[in-house]
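Interim report, section 4.2 (structural modelling).
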Amino acid sequence: MEPLFGKTLKQLEDSVRALGMPAYTAAQIADWLYRKDITGIGQMTNLSLARREVLAGKYETGLSEPLRVETSTDGTKKYLFRSRQGQFVEAAYIPEGKRKTLCVSSQVGCKMGCLFCMTGKQGFQGQLSPGEILNQVRSLPERHELTNIVYMGMGEPFDNLDAVLQSLEILTAPYGFAMSPRRITVSTIGIIPAMKTFLENSQCHLAVSLHSPFEDERRRLMPIEHVYSLREVLQAIRDFPLGKQRRISFEYIVFRDLNHHQRHVNELARLLNGIRCRINLLRFHPIPGTPLASPGEDVMQQFQAALEKKGLVTTIRRSRGEDIKAACGLLSTMEAGRQ
Amino acid sequence: MDLTRRSAVRFNREIAPGAYLLGFPRVFEFQPGQVIKLGTAPLGETRLYSIASGNRQKEVEILYSVKPGGYLTPALARLRPGDHIFYSDPFGSFHLQDGPAFWVATGTGIAPFVSRLRSGKVEGVRLVYGNRSQDRLFFHRDILPILQGRYFPCTSREQSPGMFHGRVTGFLRDFPGLDTHIPCFLCGSAEMVVDVRDLLIERGVPYGRIFAEIFF
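Predicted structure of the assembly:
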């Protein structure tokens, strides 16, 4: 059975036309899929029974409930979903005051091999479809409370660009979830051609994983630096007219004794000069088998102060869900190992 | 990184079931370890490929495996001599420097190392190269006479004379010749890179001496 969930309005129109139904049926189906809380085609009650039966003969909704949830003492919840190929993907719900953020996955595993990442240890297992990405939003019990969505879960979103762009269309389209693109951030390690396509075709915010301003140091942390260097990533961002509304942020995981010295501050200030941006500092959560260590809170604050002194807008992201293995990839790796 | 160049294919040989070597005239300078972006149409699907030929050869050689249902490799496999391909200038910084080094590759990840071997003399290099069977150890016959006793082929699904039976991680786990003071260069799938990197770190190689190229 082919899933309906994750199809754009245009794709739904093509699907219903192929079944001999009028095009307006597509808008009705989109409304049921993306705006209402149905679980099956039989509940699409403004479609005639005959049409529902024809539709159900070829399609299913494609929605799937989370398999498990782990709840942190700080309110963070880690949901485990099963993909249509039977693999495990994670989504983290992070409430913080009025802001309720969902961190979604775009791939099962990852090909990028970053030294500090647990998802990378799974290797690459497969791409998520637009429907599987959106199912993490739609099947979340807290879906009606969500204020923000970040593509920072498992996988590199720009290594699955078509599916990610399609999911963003449905999230932001009036026929879909009708979210403001200003509430959605896509994070990348810097796959430049896909990043350019994203900037041209979406209004959502962009986050770039930076982690070190020095090429040789970044290369040891992130093999992608061999192919798409940070300097070229920053040049591509500089070359794109971003407008006033769109936000660029740089994610910077701080590792003990590695990437938080004055030379890093100076080089970051030099590299980011002229880019209207924010730096988000994240304290490293140790993962099994890594040679990297977590810095103390004092290091985080000193580093932030030094960056601010250089005029760089810098925030420290509070560590969330440490007691439930919220670092992406841990929960699904354990689940895969258990199966 | 745009597809600014166009060339006629000189050859596109199936060197093992589903694995091909694509050749076209070299019209640029490059360093071993660099990649090009390659496609069969100026605005079509593209992928990055490490160059497998030496930097003084007349032809550029690209090693690829056909991924059934893939966007590009089935189309690449249909190319015939005289057909055109579109590609970028070479780029990337996975430079395989001179001097002692430890190289680890699986599958088509051998390409940058073969490029280095074909580009000039190599001193003090050891290569561990794995794939499921001997016929999929691409360039095996070229590597053997160059590196001789410093080449350690591994086959995971069949036992072959003179080869380690198992994965490269199995070989490396107990390999007595591992020098933790020389740089290690890895190229292959994400799984291999991550597993080998973890293993080398476990065996005492500082992560700062490990350089990895990934497929994506």
